[in-house]
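Job type: complex structure
Entries:
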Amino acid sequence: MSSSFGQHLRLSIFGQSHGEGLGVTIDGFPAGMAIDTERLLAEMARRAPGQSALTTARKEPDAPEFLSGVLNGRTTGQPICAVIRNTNQRSRDYGDGVDLVRPGHADYTGHVRYFGFEDWRGGGSFSGRLTAPVVLAGALCSQWLEKQGVRIACHVQQLGSVRDSSFMDADPCADYSHLKAMHLPVLTAGLDAQMEAAAMEARNDADSIGGVLECMITGLPAGLGAPFFDSVESVVSQLMFSVPAVKGIEFGAGFGFASMRGSEANDAFRMQDGKVVTETNHSGGVNGGITNGMPVVFRCVIRPTPSIGKPQQTVSLKSGTEEELVIHGRHDPCILPRAVPVIEAMAAIAVMELWKERAACLT
Amino acid sequence: MSSSFGQHLRLSIFGQSHGEGLGVTIDGFPAGMAIDTERLLAEMARRAPGQSALTTARKEPDAPEFLSGVLNGRTTGQPICAVIRNTNQRSRDYGDGVDLVRPGHADYTGHVRYFGFEDWRGGGSFSGRLTAPVVLAGALCSQWLEKQGVRIACHVQQLGSVRDSSFMDADPCADYSHLKAMHLPVLTAGLDAQMEAAAMEARNDADSIGGVLECMITGLPAGLGAPFFDSVESVVSQLMFSVPAVKGIEFGAGFGFASMRGSEANDAFRMQDGKVVTETNHSGGVNGGITNGMPVVFRCVIRPTPSIGKPQQTVSLKSGTEEELVIHGRHDPCILPRAVPVIEAMAAIAVMELWKERAACLT
Amino acid sequence: MSSSFGQHLRLSIFGQSHGEGLGVTIDGFPAGMAIDTERLLAEMARRAPGQSALTTARKEPDAPEFLSGVLNGRTTGQPICAVIRNTNQRSRDYGDGVDLVRPGHADYTGHVRYFGFEDWRGGGSFSGRLTAPVVLAGALCSQWLEKQGVRIACHVQQLGSVRDSSFMDADPCADYSHLKAMHLPVLTAGLDAQMEAAAMEARNDADSIGGVLECMITGLPAGLGAPFFDSVESVVSQLMFSVPAVKGIEFGAGFGFASMRGSEANDAFRMQDGKVVTETNHSGGVNGGITNGMPVVFRCVIRPTPSIGKPQQTVSLKSGTEEELVIHGRHDPCILPRAVPVIEAMAAIAVMELWKERAACLT
Amino acid sequence: MSSSFGQHLRLSIFGQSHGEGLGVTIDGFPAGMAIDTERLLAEMARRAPGQSALTTARKEPDAPEFLSGVLNGRTTGQPICAVIRNTNQRSRDYGDGVDLVRPGHADYTGHVRYFGFEDWRGGGSFSGRLTAPVVLAGALCSQWLEKQGVRIACHVQQLGSVRDSSFMDADPCADYSHLKAMHLPVLTAGLDAQMEAAAMEARNDADSIGGVLECMITGLPAGLGAPFFDSVESVVSQLMFSVPAVKGIEFGAGFGFASMRGSEANDAFRMQDGKVVTETNHSGGVNGGITNGMPVVFRCVIRPTPSIGKPQQTVSLKSGTEEELVIHGRHDPCILPRAVPVIEAMAAIAVMELWKERAACLT
């Protein structure tokens, strides 16, 4: 099963890059929420291409249509289905069947998986375009979670060799909503220009570049999640690794734990306003798979976009020969700006699932 | 839901550290496999405490009893249940109810999650002891997968500041079975002694130390997994983050992708003996969530054991006051040796689930 | 969760009667099947209204559009999404919000379930119109199963007091494809006219009438299903009770078992052409939850359509008073003809799920 | 998957009739419930054999042991595992491998399903003995649901040709707890003696006899369940068909709907003490898959026990020849008395799952 997630909030995404359309069904979304359509479209616009020189010039009008589950602008509690039509496929760019498989892409693995019957055009099911319905679903969840006091922020913590500071060292009570307005959201003023320069350099080399996104979720109550298979980290990571290009995730001090002593790593408990809090937050807000009320902080590494202009070595599936491949057309030299809202959306979906699971225990 | 995993192979683990017993039910395991009990017990012994100065001296006789699903030494295809009894609970060590919550542990979050009714003794459901049934289930999966040509190897890639080389630079066709016999399995001869010294140093400081485990799965066919929610990385990471102490995971080049260019990161395809292979394996054997036939390589960071001898600051749940806590008794200064078979077991469970999902497509 | 089914074949249906559209996503459908569109539309036409005096005159153009999962007329193995747009909603018939709840309908329970936010128009999520995507999904499954030799037939076994003979007494090897062409499919020639007369009589009384549908699935291998929660009967019944109006189901001798002795009820085994078969088929093709290779036979009772022209007693949700309700407009006096393809579709979906589950065991 | 049920309350049962033991894991059970052990054991005793001449004389000491999830007599919220050991297997009665498959049993289908590796002894996974852990799980759920005001009652509505009156015609507010103390619970005084006579007659003929059980659940709030795949009827029927011997189920008027007009079938709404109720309850408490606050009433048909003393025709799996089979030993001529607590238990499990699903919506 590739396209379904969740036990309490159940998502099913569908679509291929160059098919008729793509979308998402959401089962279990709470009834009665007034949808802020303007903000929903704003989120989707952050993910859409064509925003700057860093991202591909293809123009995808990501206007979703709600086929069900919404009445008079409010969620009804019934299954939501939202569809985004593909209007600009240009499949003439893509030839007749997969032949030269693109390195770093899923052309080859998709071909094996689907026995050669897959819709390969433009990446098919593997296209980053499939993240459009994810952003839509996440934006709905975010709007609901905001009413519960939950906030989700994300910034580019690293792009190539340029590194931003970390939410680990930032004030969790500060307002980070300004990050949403930045093309390359960073905590350190001016660093986005350096990042942009690094990305442009890659672009000028007909190349691409990777980075790290850091996400912080605040306002969570203690008690979400569970030990073992449905730990907060398990649920979040399952979703994050669904995002094409994510190849690693770490929570709190993450890989830094490897060289730490227990006495450094442990977060001492103390009381604050009658509430149990921790002095530090190396655990990233999660102990034993369960939220402890501190901010949940995690970082995802984003591999450089595999679509590059440089010639590459590959094979022909049709002839079984080794060939040189040159990918034409314009592609994102750096996918990070567009990945930010996707990571935020997946975070919101994860929290919603955990929230509903918790609610079932509160009876 | 905390204790259930899988759609095609379904596991349910149960037990608390100091209850009557713990165990696992496994539904969907193939019929007819002769169980190699000796090797099964050997795997469980690798996880058990008391093997060396690095690990706690508590002696847990982890002898599993199969209550169902096995007849004449073979799996029957019916649900397997295996139970490990707790014989050495010593609950007198643990006092009456959680009061001073241990930093880095799940005492506090478990208390919130279970409304104060949880079996807190010895870590309850959060105890590393729960990994005993995981190792058992994984060993069964490994034995079955070996017959299909799949091999799983794991080594300590980092312990404190001591770093081993990587499977990324090793020969995937080599035999790594000797690693299973090493207390601190490493690729570089002699490095285990350095690691042991670092761990002993932490121990002598009444402290603990973390590290990184690297795992490689070879012999996988291309085509396992799926894009999005059931990607190989999603399934593997969901399981790995179920292991207490794991706080990060990366596949292939992992966080190294952040500073790479696409032209470096992409794995060029070529033909080898009529088969499609890649020149490098930065993707860690997975493209678009699906295995490409190359070794699956991933690394997990293991935080330092939170149970340390040094005094720590914490709070009393009963009085709401801030207190100093000293944890008595002997604890593992370094959990890595015992975590190795757990990571291998989770890897085997993940592959088994993916394998069965694939089989359902081959009809 | 209301709208998702299956572990190996995963369906998610969406839509409300008077929303923008409805449809289904199908995850896990086999790759490479050429869709026979003509037969698919023929199945959907059987379910559509307006075929005769027995069924409502509303005209719903149930033309599905495949948004994903199909390329060049073949399934790709990727998630399928098919959408049917609502073009003829006439919501002016339905007023502003639920007030007088219709007896036998879900107006009241839906109001409670969705906290008053539900899309109540025309029955909302509860409308029989939701069975259109079910028929679509079932038709795809049927086409695939036919290639494996599976055949599904259904007839009206009872309508009011008119009773047809049973598949239990019929030749399972005969060809029953002619039933699909009959408006009221029956095994006994001429009985459909009697049934039609009974239905017209109810209609002339501004009333409706119920009945029983009997379904037979032939060509199944022995070994599908499992004891307990995923028994053939459990899977089939879960799906059948998803069909609005179904209030009972029985397999094989069904409720007739109550007055039977074991010596009558047991189906003696014998050999036929080297194959194990049973002399009788009181078990309806299932022993211990698993197919035994004989035809699976079951019957579903269909309650009379609750929408009738006669005045009825009900309450006003708005004022809390008791009121008389008269439902205007034209409604089916007998839903059985339109329910036949729905029952067949659900049967096909059930078998497909069981088939794939079995395939995962055959590795 | 044979042995797992539920999304919100997750059960996994395991065991074979003549293995070491059987049991159940329960994930998601509420924390903090004091278990009434005496009543739990009383429920299990109702299901146990050897209570009267009607049931087999085998003595199974069904004493469950809680391995986890219970502390100081209270549920902890953590996964519960309860084990019942098999102490009286007498596998010497059962010979070496399945050969002559018993008509009406799962010997043949189990052999196909598990490729000949199944634990066939005493029915293996298909044994009615597997209902012991079901009764245990159901008794826990019942105790919890009682605190919410839910009551579950069950009686023998038919045994052979002897018919009791129906809950449909009984006062739903009456106290039916006395039924639990009756060996053959009936609503009509004295009818149990007639039923017993009918069962003894079958026994004296070395035969068995079937019947119908009727179950009523009162005290349910309106709003449990959902349209389509998780309708109340879908959830209940999935569980009921897990009970060996159940071959049919009907809700409310059930198969009686077939000969009813809509005007008879519809349950008129009226107000009672400011609450919406229905005048009649033909719908059996469920509209559109959702509870309407009226009692949920359903009937299950129980086929006559297939184990009978009369000679039967069957085949030898080993030689492929047709043979006569005589089943020795003592068996229940009528399983209905022992099936009553199983049906009640399954009903409690169903309601618990629906209750928790509902709770997740109430956030």
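Summary: The longest helix of chain A spans residues 336-361. Chain A has seven helices and 18 strands.
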